[in-house]
Write a structure and sequence with these properties.
0% of the residues lie in helices and 50% in strands. The chain has no helices and eleven strands. A hairpin with a 5-residue loop joins β5 and β6.
Length: 125
């Protein structure tokens, strides 16, 4: 059983920064590829970034590379999403997700069987 718990969301003003955390538990082999997604009201779930927690290789969506980064602390079983220069359009529920092994479609939400409950990020001007 894999459990993912996100934290770190909140209400911030434009230009601010946040660090979101995804704490994982359960059989490591089933969650060695972790991703962050977000979903704004009325919009589809969007892939942001993903990381191989064993090798450390990361991918970030091209449109977000200048402001988003993903990292992990394996000792803490935690994956982080750092967001800088927050914009109003970053307002969304942010989710982490996990799967066993990599995938040819790392930004596709349907590739991930394990999900957290989400953490809300609200950005105001």
């Amino acid at each position: 059983q894999v459990q993912l718990v996100e934290s770190g969301g909140g209400s911030v003003q434009t230009g601010g920064s946040l660090r979101l955390s995804c704490a994982a538990s359960g059989y490591t082999y089933n969650r060695n590829f972790v991703a962050w997604f977000r979903q704004a009201p009325g919009k589809e779930r969007e892939g942001i970034a993903n990381i191989d927690i064993i090798g450390g290789h990361t991918n970030i969506a091209d449109s977000l590379k200048d402001r988003f980064s993903i990292s992990r602390d394996n000792a803490e079983n935690t994956v982080y999403l750092d967001i800088h220069n927050l914009k109003v359009e970053d307002t969304a529920m942010y989710y982490c997700a996990a799967r066993r092994g990599g995938t040819a479609y790392p930004f596709a939400h349907y590739e991930y069987p394990h999900w957290g409950q989400g953490t809300q990020v609200t950005v105001s001007s």
